[in-house]
Amino acid sequence: MDTPVKIDIKDLNLFIGKNHILKDINVTIPEKKITVLLGQSGCGKTTLLKSMNRLIDLNNQVRVSGSITIDNEDILHTRKDITKIRKKMGLLSQRPYPLPMNIYNNIAFGLRISGRKNRINLDKRVERYLRQAHLWDEAKDRLRDSASSLSIGQQQRLCLARGLAVDPVIILADEPTSALDPISSMAIEQMFTELKQSYTIVLVTHILQQALRVADYVIFMYLGEVIEQGPAHEVFTNPKNVVTRQFIQGNFS
Amino acid sequence: MTDRRIRIIEEGFFRVLMFFSTSAIVMVLLLIIISILVKGLPSLSWEMISQTPRGGFYFGKEGGILNAIIGSLYLAGGSTLLAFAVSLPVALFMNVHLVKKVKLVNTVRFLLDLLWGIPSIVYGAFGFTVMVYLGLRTSLLAGIITVTLFIIPIMIRAMDEIMKTVPRGLLEATYSLGSTRSETAYRVFFRQCFSGIITAILLAFGRGIGDAASVLFTTGYTDRIPTSLSQPTATLPLSIFFQLSSPIKEVQNRAYASALILTIIILIISVLARVFERRYFKHKINF
Ligand SMILES: Nc1ncnc2c1ncn2[C@@H]1O[C@H](COP(=O)(O)OP(=O)(O)OP(=O)(O)O)[C@@H](O)[C@H]1O
Ligand SMILES: [Mg+2]
Predict the structure, then answer these.
(1) Closest C-alpha to A203, from A96, A85, A91, A51
(2) Superfamily of domain B49-282
(3) ipTM metric
């Protein structure tokens, strides 16, 4: 690969209880590109994303080995403050989980806990991130309403704006368009392609068309293993693995 | 009999069962409220709630129970505050900081449930033993401490039950924004669980203000309004108890008036708490 590597995962094995969920994962994720993670439901995509910002720590049954290196630091075994590592990444979970606050504070929360409390500055940044997530026009007149008053698709965009607000360098997006109509999905895709100027993006999707549209780099997973990875045009035009080929040709069973 | 017929009979049976048990409960509640109203309302007067007793609590038909009203408010208010200061951090700690220590937390829950099950008179006896050991006399402070001990398990477990329902995803979302455990606990969990926390406080307050056994040996009883923590203090449940055991009919009726006052106090506090909740914490997410 000619672009610099942002995330380097080596020999990652992850067990939940007795189940071997991630098997010998070796992948590299290039900086300031969109890497799309594809694979059947249940193959471990979400688990891989959660390993990258150490959310797997919250599960007492998880055992993990190997390494995940971000900016020359093995974040799996670091003794450094874990909150610093998490702030490097904005996570968009598969289902939106807005915070129990109003819309404004959902975005200001991340800013405040990082010590940015200046009111005028907050206002500006809240507006900026809401615009980036294409939510500003719908939300600008109801910033003081509960986040729960938003529709699921709007909540998803709110969570995106909230994730951007902590100034991450990496965006981990787990099916960010699963609750959106095609037009809003396209807007989000468009936004991701704009964001890759300044962020490294890992995007999980089920939609092959979406992957074709946005991916620079593709990782295929199957039953907890990475079966193929490489630049998008190579993998899509000339898949080496038989399962990948089936998936791309649309007769995946 | 066909399958369909059995299901129709089953449906009918449970409907009748539910109807009778629901109406039985409503009837009993109505009966309690009506008997308190019928016997209590005639004796309820401004004098009752604005004066201290005259003529002793067995025979006194004069004066009021202001001593017990104030005493109970001090006692229940003080112990609810103390218990809250302990219970909220503990409940949050169990559900946020110890989220990985499932076994430990479940053991703690089990122990708290045991403590919840111990009758309040045992807490009273325990408090009394400690007082005797320390050479203290019955006092407001001893009562507050005893009642605090006995409502803490109730408050923690009631808060804990609500916090258990917070979805893992919200915890993950909060952490992924880079918040520490304490920020997660006090800024997110606290808000999400606010109405449940209010319920827990009200539950504990209700138990504290309505309990006679735990204060019997520890706070004692007096006709005066306490002016310091070291004085014995009257409480509503005990005043009801003493008035009911009086041989004089009028004094007995005053017990019902006292019960009415106790009920009204709890009603007012509950309504105030709910208004406060609606006003300031309305952003709970329903997942
Ligand atoms: N907390 C958990 N406890 C036990 N097993 C889990 C847990 N979380 C995930 N798993 C298992 O790990 C495997 C991978 O799950 P994961 O959520 O990563 O799949 P996924 O690829 O994201 O699927 P989907 O596309 O449906 O979201 C699944 O078999 C799942 O059952
Ligand atoms: Mg998933």
Answers:
(1) A91
(2) MetI-like (1.10.3720.10)
(3) 0.90
